[in-house]
Design brief:
The chain is an all-alpha fold. The chain is built from 3 helices and no strands. The chain has one domain. 91% of the residues lie in helices and 0% in strands.
């Protein structure tokens, strides 16, 4: 079971890297981190759920685009 899981994870990571999704996902994560670091704490608590939804939506759009 463990061997099959490892081969599935390895294949998925290879596919993400092949289509450039992994690097773009990393770039977007760094971008969100910088934005969240620069934003005021009051604003952060109100927009964090929206940012999470946008990030999930963008990742699905990125998969379709790749």
């Amino acid at each position: 079971m463990n061997h099959r899981l490892w081969s599935l994870v390895k294949g998925e990571l290879n596919r993400l890297n092949k289509y450039g999704v992994f690097s773009m996902s990393l770039f977007i994560a760094v971008l969100w981190s910088v934005i969240l670091f620069l934003v005021n704490d009051d604003i952060l608590s109100s927009i964090l759920p929206m940012l999470l939804l946008i990030d999930a939506t963008m990742m699905s759009m990125l998969y379709i685009g790749a």
